From TrEMBL:
One GO MF term attached to the UniProt entry: ATP binding
Organism field: Auritidibacter ignavus
PANTHER family in the record: TRNA(ILE)-LYSIDINE SYNTHASE-RELATED
GO biological process: tRNA modification
Subcellular location: Cytoplasm
Class of enzymatic activity (EC top level): ligase
Name of this chain's protein: tRNA(Ile)-lysidine synthase
Catalytic activity line of the entry: cytidine(34) in tRNA(Ile2) + L-lysine + ATP = lysidine(34) in tRNA(Ile2) + AMP + diphosphate + H(+)
SUPFAM superfamilies per the UniProt record, alphabetical: Adenine nucleotide alpha hydrolases-like, MesJ substrate recognition domain-like
Length: 363
């Protein structure tokens, strides 16, 4: 595999004779644990080493290990660089040769790049296409090839962007996206497998994966983290990667607790009316910041607004804490929601914090 691979290839008979490499056994066990039996799972396959290894593991699961699970493939052409339609077609050829079906290839018309940049836009477009593919084929889940290396990179990305535990928790083993046009259940069986191991699985299977030029494009932050930052950090010692993975696991536990506690407080405190959610001002003041951000964020999204940044929820908490004579708002939040203090029972005093939808003519 020392030349630049412009599309994935299967070079020999499949499966090869001989013992399976050890990471293949681990990947198979995780795939079986995470996918429902007696059902179809679609594999998201880009043609890179991680998802081609997933294709290998799923094929062996279906044909050798467990006849109750079926796997199909969905390969999307983001059309962000030349040659990607050929990559998706090559994935389809290999998947069909391995006996997987259905095999779906789709060109993605990405919407205008939003505030999160090209990567975020591609991600949303991809999820919608996976959801559509699962819906039309009756698949119960979509499996993706994220690895332990992706996880370590994700933690570093979270750190440099300034994130709380939800983001530092990195990539989840399972996610259900209910906000898409069709609900989508995603599983990631390779989070305990390194990229070197997915390459080992491909090599064993006689697959030469596609090498996506964007993975080494220095203009992309993730690529710089992968090729410059992480190798640099690893000079600090042999436990850098495992330390980052432990950070993700600890942050996931903390985020789960904080989210559940914020949800409980929200249910206790929120007075819900049409287009308005009110809180007792003192109760908001008493919330620890970690919960205040979440409770206010939840009220905004319940009203149909966009999840606000930490800076915006901080502004709302400051409004709640401000002295009686100072401004009562409103503070505009993203997605047509605003916050203000309101006078209540006691004359001259503010006693509620109110989040409300702004009529569209004024927003
Ligand atoms: N164009 C695509 N079509 C289908 N699935 C995709 C596509 N791009 C990414 N995926 C899925 O999402 C996972 C993570 O995507 P990411 O872009 O981070 O890829 P990666 O780490 O380079 O992995 P790979 O080596 O499989 O390309 C992939 O392993 C694959 O399962």
């Amino acid at each position: 595999m020392n030349h630049w691979q412009t599309r994935p290839q299967l070079t020999g008979a499949f499966p090869p004779a001989g013992r399976w490499p050890e990471p293949l056994h681990r990947g198979l066990a995780q795939l079986q644990r995470l996918t429902p039996p007696q059902s179809l799972t679609l594999l998201g396959v880009s043609g890179g080493a991680d998802s081609m290894a997933l294709l290998v593991v799923a094929t062996l699961c279906q044909t050798r290990a467990d006849h109750t699970r079926r796997f199909g493939v969905i390969s999307l052409d983001h059309q962000l660089q030349s040659g990607t339609a050929e990559v998706a077609a090559a994935v389809a050829t290999i998947a069909t040769r391995l006996g997987l079906e259905p095999v779906i290839t789709r060109a993605l018309d990405l919407p205008e790049t939003g505030t999160g940049g090209l990567e975020a836009t591609a991600r949303v477009g991809r999820l919608e296409a996976f959801a559509q593919g699962a819906h039309t084929t009756g698949a119960q889940a979509v499996a993706l090839g994220h690895t332990a290396d992706d996880q370590a990179e994700q933690v570093l990305l979270g750190l440099v962007r300034g994130s709380g535990p939800r983001s530092l928790a990195g990539i989840a083993e399972t996610t259900t996206y209910s906000e898409l046009n069709h609900p989508l259940h995603v599983v990631r069986p390779f989070l305990g497998i390194s990229r070197a191991e997915t390459e080992q699985i491909c090599h064993w299977a006689g697959i030469e994966p596609w090498q996506d030029p964007m993975n080494t494009d220095p203009r992309i932050l993730r690529a710089r983290i992968r090729h410059q930052v992480l190798p640099g950090l690893e000079q600090l010692g042999p436990t850098v990667r495992s330390g980052l993975l432990a950070t993700a696991a600890i942050a996931a536990e903390d985020a789960e607790y904080l989210d559940a506690e914020a949800h409980r407080r929200y249910r206790m405190l929120a007075q819900i009316h049409t287009a308005t959610i009110r809180f007792d001002l003192q109760a908001v003041r008493d919330l620890p910041a970690a919960l205040g951000h979440r409770v206010i964020g939840k009220a905004v999204t319940e009203l149909g607004g966009t999840r606000p940044s930490r800076e915006r929820t901080l502004a709302v908490m400051e409004l709640a804490r401000a002295r009686p004579g100072s401004s009562a708002g409103p503070i505009q939040l993203a997605g047509g929601v605003a916050a203000r203090r309101n006078r209540g029972q006691n004359p001259g005093e503010y006693d509620t914090l109110e989040l409300f939808t702004v009529p569209s003519s004024r927003s």
